[in-house]
Amino acid sequence: MGATVEQALEQLKSTGVRMTPQRHAILSFLMNSMTHPTADEIYKSLSPAFPSMSVATIYNNLRLFVDAGFVRELTYGDDSSRFDADLSEHYHAICRSCGTIVDFDYPPLTEVETEASRQTGFKVEGHRMEVYGQCAECSRPNS
Ligand code: ZN
Ligand code: MN
């Protein structure tokens, strides 16, 4: 798992980024969330506590966190980006019906990099894979 919220905020502070309660709330929300939220979802969850915060503030902060390397931006298809504060190596299963993203892991897949390198002569730096289908909820009969 990645850094704690406090470690991340300390690191941001050392690069001269000013700490605000909103910034803290957005980063905490992302780090405690397993749902890979969109900017809109973050906005809806936090706006009761921060009524004066705009969606633009959310976007600006997400951009800052992505650039600082604390958060990964997930762009799948043409839906709005989702954000993931779990920086560990993992894959995503994506529901075509409701958009839910669920984490999974499959370490043997790193062999694909060795094989790709062998076949192409590339110095491979990484790979990306997604699985698409219906989530457990959406594929349940009579749901
Ligand atoms: Zn679903
Ligand atoms: Mn994830």
Automatic annotation (TrEMBL):
Keyword annotations of the record: Cytoplasm, DNA-binding, Iron, Manganese, Metal-binding, Repressor, Transcription, Transcription regulation, Zinc
Q: Which Pfam families match?
A: FUR
Q: Write down the CDD domains for this protein, in alphabetical order.
A: Fur_like
Q: List ligand-binding residues for Zn(2+).
A: 95, 98, 135, 138
Read off the InterPro entries from this record.
Answer: FUR, Fur_C, WH-like_DNA-bd_sf, WH_DNA-bd_sf
Where in the cell does this protein reside? Answer: Cytoplasm
Cofactor(s) the protein requires to work: Zn(2+); Mn(2+); Fe(2+)
Q: Which GO terms describe its biological process?
A: negative regulation of DNA-templated transcription; regulation of secondary metabolite biosynthetic process
Binding-site residues, Fe cation: 127
Alphabetical GO CC annotations of the entry are: cytoplasm
Give the UniProt family note: Belongs to the Fur family.
List the PANTHER family: PEROXIDE-RESPONSIVE REPRESSOR PERR (PTHR33202:SF8), ZINC UPTAKE REGULATION PROTEIN (PTHR33202)
Its protein name is Peroxide operon regulator
